[in-house]
Amino acid sequence: MSRNSPPATPLSGRVRDADAVPPGRKERRHARKRARSSWLRRLWSLSTGRFGLIVVAVVLATALVSLFWTPFDPQQVDISNRWAPPSWPHVLGTDASGRDILSLLMAGARTTVLVAVGAGLVASVVGIALAALGALTARWVRESVAVFVDILIAFPVLIIAMMISAVWGGSLWVVIWSVGIGFGVSIARVTRPELRRVLHSEFVLAGRMAGLTPSQNLVRHLLPNVAPVFIVQLSWSMAVAVLAEAGLSYLGFGAPVTEPSWGLLLAELQQFITVHPLSVVWPGLAITFTVLGLNLLGDGIREATDPTLTRRGGAARTARTHVPEVVS
């Protein structure tokens, strides 16, 4: 080895590693990890988010537990024990057939979760697809999609679901698809202007100049910046899906009589509301709290994840600029 050649020390290796990973990118990577780990704490600190999380967690846990266990068979008829008051072992009492109301509510939670999640997935796919077509395509396609959305949104979702159910028969899948498509159109109508607004932002233009395709720009830049608006609309559509299923089942267009449903239970018990008013309270409270929890959870998630809003020590929200990096 020559006397003038520098020795290979561990320091030179560290220098090469530091040169390979720019400090700015490493700092941004740690910042993203901290942001992902702290949004749940911000959600829990909000009263609306905390209430929504508790209600949704209780409904999900009830639906999961009912798959394996309920206090009684939900469809078990016991004429000798009909209209039992709330007591042990029938905590919420029984109905006109002697069925345990608590078991019926637990089994009905499965139907509620299935309808809410299924309608939410259908609404998400339909809404994002229509919004992307109405914001990222050629002008004639954008205008055609806008007219199509305006035509579909003129028809009430419940009327469409009732018409489809009258033709195809009462089914949960009919409710899921009709409500999901109907509210997917509403999501597209609200999300499309936001996509158009973000589309002209400087970081989106810089990403386009850096070689990002329209689909990459959509996933990396556009959707994260319209996520708060999308989340509010999605939570609202899931909440209304619960109401729609209960209303359609109440009218006889939703779940079949063999499927436990809060709407069916409410329709059966409301005939005896003047004689046994307390029995009607339980399915009504279950529907009310579930819809309220979904709405408040969506509002809390929007406040916790919106990049343009922040809370400092419980103070009022203030706006701040958020420009995502162009190239990861």
How are the SSEs placed, and which strands pair?
Blueprint: H1 10-20, H2 23-45, H3 47-66, H4 101-136, H5 139-153, H6 157-168, H7 172-199, H8 202-209, H9 214-251, H10 262-269, H11 277-305, E1 309-310, E2 318-319
Antiparallel strand pairs: 1-2
Helix pairs in contact: 2-11, 3-4, 3-11, 4-5, 4-7, 4-9, 5-7, 6-7, 7-9, 8-9, 9-10, 9-11, 10-11
The residue ranges in which pLDDT falls below 50 over 5 or more consecutive positions are: 8-21, 310-328
The percent range for strand residues is under 5%
Alpha-beta classification:
mainly alpha
Please give the count of helices: 11
Query: Average pLDDT across residues?
Result: 77
What's the arrangement of strands in the largest beta sheet?
Answer: 1-2
Number of beta strands: 2
The helix content, as a percent range, equals 55-70%
Characterize the largest beta sheet: strand count, sense, and whether it forms a barrel: 2 strands, antiparallel
Assembly state: single chain
